[in-house]
Design a protein that fits this description.
With 399 residues, this protein is mainly beta. It has 4 helices and 30 strands. The radius of gyration is 25 Å and the shape is globular. The N and C termini lie far apart (52 Å).
Length: 399
Amino acid sequence: MPETTYVTFEESWDEASRTGGRALSREEARARDAAGLPYAVIYRVPGREVPFGARMVAWQAGVLDAWAYDEHGRRTAEAELRLRTDEGRLLIRRLLVRRYPDGQTAEFDVDCPRTAVELSADGPARISHQPEGMRGASLEAEVAVAEEDLWTARPGFDDWPALPVADTLPDWVAAKLVPGASDWRREPSRLLGSTDFDRVFRPGTHMAGLTVLDAVPCGSLRVPSGVLAVACPQSWGEVPEITVAVPPGTYPVKAAMVEVADQGYGSYEEVAAVRLQIGDAPVAAWEMALGPGHDTLRLRAGEAFGFGTDGATGAFGDAGVWQDLRDLLERANWKGSPEADKLTNSAAGMHLDGGGLGADLAVFCTGGDGVYPVWVGRSASGEVVCVDVQTAFDLDLDA
């Protein structure tokens, strides 16, 4: 911790935007601490615009979260502690440390090395280490943890020794990361997918009880801003979490059609996936699209990030005018709307001509409500070739 520091107090803290709520005096913060109400302590250095640390305390909820920041405002470390009220002590539940190679690397950049530690009061700690970032393999280990490394006493308001998180790992974790340490198992990147979506766009391909048919065109999509959003178009007033940077342009949308063999009801046709085709190069790797704050260290086996829907729909659209497209879609759906002619049916769902917005919306049906991952096909040089969403979630495309 820097030698010259001071603290400020606020009602709340947003760790991503580095902004808090109403400023509190020390006396107000002390009273909130005594009552168990939420408050934040912000650690600052004279002359530095961004804080170097913060902690958010809510004793009634048994929560203490803390973050460390570098001079660029990027989160370098995080800690989650949980209060055992009957014992008056805090369980160190999770630690995360990130390394940025230079001042230009963005926060949460997928290539940044990171290490996470998840602890439990009644089991071994899980260490996940990604020395090559999210695209690289993860080194995993379960280790026993000494009692003194699991717990820390609940401090009084004036008894905080320091910020309870730093950009260095505890000694017992660092000792596991030395070259040649045993007990590690190597797991493939959680960012990269195993499904080859190209298979469902190759007519005649047979797999797991289905036969691939010819793909069906579903119109074209203008993306003038160069930022593609993939989200549920029925979500009101929400900024899409999942976005993908693509070259500004107009791109074809197509649906992967498959014939499914069903012994009980006979065969039927279904849309297995939808695709926005960006380029013509072969896909060398499939990468999960991430939203703000998404970190694959949080994922367990079989889990994925994606966009959520409560209306069994998703859409491709320009992120810069997403809400305008969303509003236009709603108006076009009104009975007798003068803008109804902007909406046409497609094999995947509907296509909205955005007209003067200079952008369009390609709406597709999903297999139901839930969370749907967005997969980006990249060429060997890392360029975006296509963006795919599997819409029939009951189809096993890995089989």
